[in-house]
Amino acid sequence: MLSDQTFDPSKFKKIKKAEKEHFWFVARRKWIFDRIRQFCVPPADFLEVGCGTGNVSSFLAKVGYVVTGCELYEEAIKIAWQGFKIMKGDANSLPFENQSFDIVGLFDVIEHLDDPVIALKEALRVLKPGGIVSVTVPARKELWSYYDEISLHRRRYTKESLSCILQEAGFSVLKINYMFMALYLPMKYLRGNQKHGSADQFNINPLVNVLLKRLFEMERHISGFLPLPIGTSLIGVARKDIRD
Asked: How confident is the model over 92-118, as a mean pLDDT?
């Protein structure tokens, strides 16, 4: 989403079509809200870096945050969801003043970048002292597949590797947790037994989609008090030192 050859902009229309009801997008945006409000409640100033069409930004604006989205690709900006401010910008050189935001989010962004620490240091720069950064990333190297390749991912993360890059960028890690535990074994089996697949990852039977939304709603609530032991994604929250 954020620099040349990190994302295929032709996919934005298909992604936006899926964002409204697909179980993965619905669960993820709620999971993000659950985590960030533990540390910073509305109406805090929120910046989403690499916001795409603004699925998460629009949702967070509806629950009370003052949201700005930053996206490199015009294709996404032109069709973005409503309810928040969006502007063009690169994660590696954000068009904002120092200490402008209470929260910065990078949701499924840094796995596309050659050097994610550069973007995280930019997030640190634009955060107010004591502010937080929240990131989501694909998890577990053993789940690497054709889908990662067509999505132009550079890597999948472990808890340890995500913690390391957050600390390298200058943050103090608060929480790193798994999401989508129920997808782990099916994904491990399916992705380990195929070299290629359909490029449309979001084409799903409506009944299956409803059942999975309910499953991950339950899983999300459980994860609020009992961290999941495994999953296909990670969500992390880290803080900028109040003295910075």
From this structure: 98
Residue with structure tokens 């943050």?
Answer: 171
Phi-psi region of 54 (alpha: psi -120 to 50; beta: other; left: phi over 0): left
Per-residue pLDDT at 222:
97
**Domain presence at residue 25:** yes
Q: Is residue 134 part of a domain?
A: yes
Question: Which pLDDT value is given to residue 48?
Answer: 98
Q: What confidence category does residue 203 fall into, taking pLDDT thresholds of 50, 70 and 90?
A: confident
The boundaries of the domain holding residue 63 are 9-239
> Is 54 in contact with 24 (CB distance < 8 Å)?
no
DSSP three-state, residue 101: strand
Give the predicted TM-score (pTM) of the model. Answer: 0.94
| 2 occurs within a structural domain | no
Please tell me whether residue 70 adopts helix, strand or coil conformation.
Answer: strand
Record the tokens describing residue 159, joined without a space: 């808890």
Laid out side by side, the sheet with 127-138 consists of: 85-88, 66-71, 45-49, 101-107, 127-138, 233-239, 172-179
SS3 assignment, position 66: strand
Q: Residue 1 domain-assigned?
A: no
pLDDT single digits (tens) 19-58 = 999 999 999 999 999 999 999 999 999 999 999 999 999 9
Number of domain units in the chain: 1
Q: Which long-range contacts link 148-154 to residues 24+ away (Cβ below 8 Å)?
A: 150/199, 151/7, 151/112, 152/5, 152/6, 152/7, 152/8, 152/112, 153/111, 153/112, 154/111, 154/112, 154/113, 154/114
